[in-house]
Amino acid sequence: MTDQLILYTNPQSRGRIARWMLEEVGATYSVEVLDYASTMKGEAYRAINPMGKVPAIVHGGKVVTECAAICAYLAEAFPEAGLAPLPEERADYYRWLFYAAGPVEQATTNNYAKFDSGDQSRMFGYGNFDLVVDVLDGLLSSRPYATGDRFTAADVYLGSQIGWTTMFGMLPKRDSFAAYIERVQSRAAYQRAWAMDDALVAEAQKAAEPA
């Protein structure tokens, strides 16, 4: 089928973001679960994503990698789901989608790794960790979702970033973050996607148990 959609993932990875987005748009898709130590680094998958990382999707023979790009692509590929931005939402949609993919991702991972930009903060797009956190807090204190009152694909990515970094203590506790996480994680598509990946984790753990 020319419109076949395949998700390449691992349930203990950012692949959960792509799975959630696929469930949001209601797409029919198949899943290829890859192992970090073997299939993810094998030649067959590197032909799809030379980085040897998940997630990736293949749709109609075309490859899309990077979680933010996957979210934006699927919103446009399945417009009936209503997750692409309306004309008046586009500025906020792209601004905060890429803010999450750039400054938030970089600042939280660098801070977790104990990297401090110090006097060189002007060289880094996010400036410093505290600034990124305050900007994010300001956004989510002023509105329920990235573009305003409506959930969009930007919230799949932004919600995943905040949920993941909060769960691992990479973001400080803020009331706005907690409320936002509760809103986005209460969605039926999130619950379905999470349950699917949790089941895969449990299956893998059971298979690893001594006979």
Low-confidence stretches: none
Spatial strand arrangement across the major sheet = 2-1-3-4
Tell me the series of helices and strands, N- to C-terminal: EHEHEEHHHHHH
How many β strands by DSSP? 4
Distance between the termini: 41 Å
What is the residue-mean pLDDT, rounded to a whole number? 95
- Evaluate the radius of gyration: 18 Å
SSE arrangement:
Layout: E1 5-9, H1 15-25, E2 30-33, H2 43-46, E3 56-59, E4 62-65, H3 67-77, H4 90-112, H5 129-142, H6 153-167, H7 175-185, H8 188-208
Parallel strand pairs: 1-2
Antiparallel strand pairs: 1-3, 3-4
Helix pairs in contact: 1-3, 1-6, 1-8, 3-6, 4-5, 4-6, 5-7, 6-7
Structure write-up:
This protein is 52% helix and 8% strand. The protein is of the alpha+beta class and 211 residues long. It folds into 2 domains: 5-81, 3-Layer(aba) Sandwich (Glutaredoxin); 87-189, Glutathione S-transferase Yfyf (Class Pi), Chain A, domain 2, CATH 1.20.1050.10. It has a 4-stranded mixed sheet with strand order 2-1-3-4, with helices on one face. Strand 3 and strand 4 form a beta hairpin. Helix 1 (15-25) crosses helix 8, helix 4 (90-112) packs antiparallel against helix 5 and helix 6 crosses helix 7.
Structure at a glance:
By secondary structure, the chain is an alpha+beta fold. It is 52% helix and 8% strand. It has 2 domains: 5-81, 3-Layer(aba) Sandwich (Glutaredoxin), CATH 3.40.30; 87-189, Glutathione S-transferase Yfyf (Class Pi), Chain A, domain 2 (Up-down Bundle), CATH 1.20.1050.10.
Task: Considering the chains and any ligands shown, give keywords for the structure.
211 residues, alpha+beta, Glutaredoxin, Glutathione S-transferase Yfyf (Class Pi), Chain A, domain 2, 2 domains, 4-stranded mixed sheet, 8 helices, 52% helix, 8% strand, globular
